[in-house]
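Memo to structure team: turn this sequence into structure tokens by end of day. - J.P.
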Amino acid sequence: ALVGLPQFATQPTGGPRYMPGSAEFNNALATVIQNPDLTKGAKFIDQSQLYHVDGNYNFKEIIQFAEIQLGGSFRSYKLDSQGTIFTDFDGPIRYDEYGIYTQVQKKFMDDRLKFTGSIRYDKSQNFEGQYSPRISFVYSAGERKNHNFRVSFQTGFRNATTQDQYIGLDLGPFALVGSAEDNLDRYVETMNVSAAGHALGAPATVTLSGRDAYNSNVYSVPSVQAFALSQNPADLEIVNVKLVKPEQVKAFEVGYKSVTNDGIAVDLNAYYNIYNDFMSTSRVIRPYYGAVGADLSDQNVLLGLQALSNGDRRVYQVYTNTTENVTSFGFGVGLSKKIYKDFEFGINYNHAQFDFDQAKDPSFIAGFNTPRHRVKASLGNQNLFKNFGFNLNARWSDEYLWQSSFADGMIPSVTVFDAQINYAVPSMKSVFKVSASNLFGNDYLQVIGAGRIGQQYLVSWIINP
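Reply from structure team:
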């Protein structure tokens, strides 16, 4: 105990801390949550707005030979964080995007074969336009058309998010800098040079912008970490981060769905995705002075290496695309059946796998963030007694790697039980439900850096007039 300092508590591996609930703790908390400097405070302001409108028209009353639809959408973004998240120090950032599409659906072979084809065009203000054609076939076999086979080929794309494009956030150890062209000049910071660097002739401070992170030579973070241990310049990897562009995917999917003669509902599916320009984040380092290069006869390159050794460098997290091959694949199996009177049991398994050779792009952070194995089982009876029903679920997923700009780490394996009971009151045209999530379980994680998920309880009253 610290004599004379009753307002402090201590941790075994730390120094004095204010005791929660004390006046000193409350005052410090109030100061921290009002300070937008994330090296000292925790205040975010986000008054951003999104305006979206879409429309669709089905020509089935006009065109008879096939079902044809035409539609479109428009979306406008207004980013307003007052400089606490985005680089909107001098006012809100605005940009727009729109899309148009058409779809044709036609049945053949006594309505056993259904064809669906579509194409969509999307244009964002900050990216080139993207076409997304898709095609699928569903065939219903059997006398009762109860064996449904499906196959599809789809293309899609993913634009960078608002934060991927316009974030400008100093986290202390590194800075997040969005990849939009007009964001680079808005992110500007002044960094202090060490006394050792100043002795080498560097100024006391240097001014850096987003252009020091993109479209110029920098070192990858893993290679600088290796250099710090070996002091061998050959370990350094020089990269030139390009501005982010839309990610594209080609998706192949097959499936089967049926109800067998003995009442077993079967649902099988499998997919394989091929990504081009897979989009995520990477971490790179820029020396405050000197140059980035491999020519050790160049004095500026040697000066840059000295800057790394002196700790005179800036770490950036950038938003870009990998040039390496990225694929994902998976499958799912679902079975359900009434096992006794109105009791229905169901179980499904899903497998998801991501293939990316980290050794070929060590600084790239893929962020797949999906468990490889997931299982869900359920047991329910909607007519256990008159107007009374229930449902029980058990969910399990194995551990997996979580990667994000905020934190990385392993998400532990977890088993979660959920339950629901419902009671119908026909005279009131109502159904009352009581449900619980994570019943009997411990708090569990789904995101590294976020809070744990505990028990959740819900009471609802549904009226069907």
